[in-house]
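Researcher: Good morning. I'm working through a list of sequences from a screen, and I'd like to move beyond sequence-only analysis. For each chain I'm collecting a predicted structure so we can compare shapes side by side. This is the next one on the list. No need for commentary yet; just the structure.
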Amino acid sequence: MLKTIEFRILLLMVGISLVPAFGLSASKTKKGAAKQAAPAAAASTAAATPAKGNVELPAIYLAETKGEVYVVHNEFKDKADAPQVLEDGDRILTRADSFAYLELRDGGVVEVDPNSDFTVKKADYPAQGLRAMFNLAYGKVMALVKKLATAQSAFEIEAGGVVSGVRGTVYSVEYDGYKCPVIERTYEGTVVNRWPPKHEQATEAGHWNKVCVCGETTTGKLDSSEDKDFGRFKKAAEEVEGHNGKIQGELKTKIAAENQRKASVNWFIILAICHYHP
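Model: Good morning. Structure tokens for this chain:
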């Protein structure tokens, strides 16, 4: 009877240590959990833990931040700790004068501008190439997208019912979260905007397109202030890509440590069951 009670208490303690989230988004809670891993279990699993050099980068990750940025993962909101893994469903929240820079594993940068709410709906690399879908609840994002490898590849940002898709270009999407229009600006390449029921309109480089799901659209040429903003973003994206070696090295270290923490916890549970189960 006593062993059964001890066993249940032990499993409860392990469960509590895993509550914050799985993955690397809630970074502070992960650091605390890693310190609590049993030394003996960690030693037992060290050999089976992937080395840093063998760790595969995720399809998309938070590379750098400036100012006050938060990541919402599994409903837990925590201050961003770049570089960190991003998973499907994760939200990026930026405050005033703050920026977040996301990178795709095979190239490409997404900038989340101040006062924005941006969600990674899906990002992976199946056999047919990159499939990346995002949602902008409000605010503004700018994206530098490398040429997509296959016809089945996709990179799309949805805002206010309007989906802006590209094949390889530089563009931005802006939406206030409440009313029309969604403003899409194309700096390089071509962007195709789609909205219900079956409307579709392309925006060529050097132009903007204001789209409302009610069906009203207007287009025009980018002005000097928009061109200046494009230059600022492109410089920022190049700086982020220039830090890739450092960013990816730090991220792989975090992923390897998290893999080891999970393996340690699994071994701890197995050992506990073997020892305490009546």
